[in-house]
Q: What sequence folds into this?
C-alpha cells in the first residue's frame, strides 16, 4: 500500500483480515482515500448520494465524518479560546463538547428541496441539482449504487465532473455506467443487492477511519 502512513494502512489490513473478500478492492479503497484526503486538505467537501439502503449508507457516512468516530476530535486551543471569548458561559460548553468535522452532505436528506425540484422540474435530476448547488471544483462526489446504473446517481456524477469535482463509485461486482464515469470505483465482490450492501458498510467505515486518523490522529 504505497504512500500510506502506517497508522492509516493498518485500517486496510484489519479490513481485509475481517472481510477477506475485500482484498480484491483494497487498491481502489486506497485510491479513494487519497482523493478524499486531498480534497479535505484543500478545503473541499464530500457530497454523497444513493437510493434506498444506499441512501441510508450516505447518511451513515456523513455521521461518521461530521463528528468523532473513534477519536475525540477536541477543538484546537485557538478555536476553543475564541469560543470562550465570544461568550464565556456558552463558549465554555461549546469548547468542551464541539468536535472536529470533515464536511460532508448526504443529498437524500433535503425533502423540501428534493420534492420541490421533482415536482417542478425533472425528478431524476434531484441529486444533480444539489451537486450543482453545493459542489465546487476540488470537492468529491461519492455515488453509491448496488447496480452502478441508478440514473439519478449517474446524472449527479456527470454534473460533478462538469463542476471540476472527482467522482468515487461504490457498486457491486458487475460492470456499470457508474464505473465507467468514476475516477475510482470500488466494486465489492457480490452481485446480490443485500450482499453488496453488507460489504459496502465495512468499506466506508474503513475510509472514515483512515480519514479520521489522517486529520485528527496523533
A:
Amino acid at each position: 500500500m504505497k504512500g500510506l502512513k502506517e497508522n492509516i494502512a493498518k485500517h486496510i489490513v484489519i479490513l481485509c483480515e475481517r472481510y477477506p473478500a475485500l482484498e480484491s478492492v483494497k487498491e481502489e479503497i486506497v485510491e479513494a482515500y487519497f482523493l478524499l484526503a486531498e480534497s479535505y486538505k484543500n478545503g473541499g467537501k464530500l457530497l454523497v448520494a444513493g437510493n434506498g439502503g444506499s441512501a441510508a449508507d450516505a447518511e451513515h457516512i456523513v455521521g461518521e465524518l461530521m463528528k468523532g468516530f473513534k477519536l475525540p476530535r477536541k477543538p484546537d486551543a485557538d478555536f476553543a479560546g475564541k469560543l470562550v471569548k465570544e461568550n464565556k458561559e456558552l463558549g465554555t460548553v461549546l469548547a468542551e463538547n464541539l468536535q472536529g468535522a470533515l464536511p460532508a452532505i448526504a443529498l437524500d436528506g433535503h425533502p423540501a428541496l428534493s420534492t420541490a425540484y421533482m415536482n417542478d422540474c425533472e425528478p431524476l435530476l434531484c441529486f444533480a441539482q444539489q451537486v450543482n448547488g453545493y459542489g465546487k471544483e476540488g470537492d468529491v462526489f461519492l455515488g453509491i449504487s448496488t447496480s452502478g446504473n441508478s440514473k439519478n446517481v449517474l446524472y449527479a456524477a456527470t454534473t460533478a465532473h462538469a463542476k471540476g469535482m472527482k467522482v468515487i463509485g461504490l457498486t457491486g461486482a458487475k460492470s456499470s455506467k457508474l464505473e465507467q464515469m468514476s475516477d475510482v470505483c470500488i466494486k465489492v465482490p457480490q452481485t446480490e443487492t443485500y450482499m453488496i450492501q453488507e460489504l459496502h458498510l465495512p468499506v466506508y467505515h474503513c475510509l472514515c477511519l483512515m480519514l479520521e486518523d489522517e486529520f485528527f490522529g496523533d
